[in-house]
Amino acid sequence: AARPAVPSPPDRPFLPRATMQIRLKNFVTQVPTEAPDRALEHFSSKLKHETDCWDVHASQDLEDRGFVLVDVRSREAFDAGHVPGAIHIPQAQLTEDRLAEYAEDTLFVVYCAGSHCNGSPRAAIRLARLGRPVKEMIGGALGWVDEGFDLVRP
To answer: How far is CA 101 from each of CA 80, 95, 98, 106, 114, rounded to the nearest angstrom?
Structure first.
């Protein structure tokens, strides 16, 4: 039995299946890379603003970690499980009064739930506006667990 003709848009004439070619796009190479000096600048800049779960974990046993780790999630999320050594300050409560106990040059490392959460970027903005040094722990609490590290749980 013959197949009925399939109508096609006027700007694309119908091609029988045997002659149709499918071209897959390579989304990795579709956009050209930057020159190596620009890439160096970009990735070096990222490390000035970010740290990861592994690096924070590696600092756990140091006598002076050199930073204050801040969980900026809700009280409920913090109490359900947080990174060892973290203090809890929700991002909306990062104020000059709340931070008065810390020296002006104290580095704050902030984290939230994970990459799907914008709490830590919001907290980093608040801290930077207050003139405080800040980095974001990329991955957040979920990244911590993904690395195989334990959360402090009640």
So the answer is: 26, 11, 7, 10, 28
Residues linked to residue 109 through DSSP beta bridges, in sequence order: 69, 135
Could you read off the pLDDT of 102-150 as tens digits, one per residue? 999 999 999 999 999 999 999 999 999 999 999 999 999 999 999 999 9
Record the pTM: 0.80
Please state, in angstroms and rounded to a whole number, the distance separating the CA atoms of residues 151 and 153.
6
Active-site entry in 112, 123, 124, 137: 112
Q: Answer for the pair 58, 126: CB distance below 8 angstroms, yes or no.
A: no
Residue 62 near residue 94 (C-beta atoms within 8 A): no
Can you tell me the mean pLDDT for 3-17? 55
Told to judge if 112 belongs to the known catalytic residues of this protein, a careful annotator would answer yes
